[in-house]
């Protein structure tokens, strides 16, 4: 059985990278995902962790509050006791993928580059095809 949860959301606070005593890096970021609409809309806060070499890269510098992201990984739920004695639940995602998908919600910001946790630099990403008036050269069999 596979447990894969994928969603888009907004970073709630700047990402942090920490190191375990073993030396392994972990990048932690909290992402808000809105579900429903109108007066029935709810916000789910999901704590995401990215482990190992992918956590050590430059992704931390781009995961700032307000940044839109796509996240995919294994979802789990844990319970904890709040200070008032009530039991609360927390959604946690052991992330495999964290990709930037939009611009931050800040005015006067320089354009963002699309770096992903997959290790692709902009030079390795697919080229942009801005000439929409060009004839199609593809041999599509249908």
Give your account of this protein's structure.
By secondary structure, the chain is mainly beta. It has one domain: Nucleic acid-binding proteins (OB fold (Dihydrolipoamide Acetyltransferase, E2P), Beta Barrel), CATH 2.40.50. It has one helix spanning 53-56; strands at 5-11, 16-19, 25-35, 42-51, 68-81, 87-100. The protein has a 5-stranded mixed barrel. A hairpin with a 6-residue loop joins strand 3 (25-35) and strand 4 (42-51). The chain starts with a strand and ends in a 42-residue tail after the last strand.
List the helices and strands and how they pair.
Layout: E1 5-11, E2 16-19, E3 25-35, E4 42-51, H1 53-56, E5 68-81, E6 87-100
Parallel strand pairs: 4-6
Antiparallel strand pairs: 1-3, 1-5, 2-3, 3-4, 5-6
Write a concise synopsis of the structure shown.
This protein is mainly beta and 142 residues long. The protein is 3% helix and 42% strand. The chain has a 5-stranded mixed barrel.
Largest β-sheet summary = 5 strands, mixed, barrel
Class computed from helices, strands and strand pairing: mainly beta
Strand content: 35-45%
The CATH class designation is Mainly Beta
Average residue-wise pLDDT: 80
Tally the beta strands.
6
Cα-atom radius of gyration: 19 Å
Arrangement of strands in the largest sheet? 1-3-4-6-5
Q: Can you tell me the CATH topology?
A: OB fold (Dihydrolipoamide Acetyltransferase, E2P)
Order of helices and strands: EEEEHEE
Instruction: Please identify which CATH superfamily we are dealing with.
Output: Nucleic acid-binding proteins
Distance between the termini: 36 Å
Helix share of residues? under 10%
Number of domains: 1
Structure annotation, total helices? 1
Poorly predicted segments: 107-116, 120-132
* Structural shape: globular
CATH architecture: Beta Barrel
């Amino acid at each position: 059985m596979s447990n894969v949860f994928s969603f888009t959301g907004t970073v709630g606070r700047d990402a942090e990278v920490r190191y375990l005593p073993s030396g392994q890096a972990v990048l932690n970021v909290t992402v808000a995902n809105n579900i429903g609409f109108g007066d029935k809309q709810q916000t789910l806060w999901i704590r995401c962790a990215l482990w190992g070499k992918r956590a050590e890269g430059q992704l931390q510098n781009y995961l700032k509050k307000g940044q839109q992201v796509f996240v995919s990984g294994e979802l789990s739920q844990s319970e904890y006791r709040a200070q008032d004695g009530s039991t609360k639940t927390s959604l946690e995602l052991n992330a495999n993928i964290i990709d930037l998908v939009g611009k931050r919600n800040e005015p006067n910001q320089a354009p963002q580059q699309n770096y992903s946790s997959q290790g692709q630099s902009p030079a390795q990403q697919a080229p942009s095809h801005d000439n929409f008036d060009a004839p199609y050269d593809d041999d599509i069999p249908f």
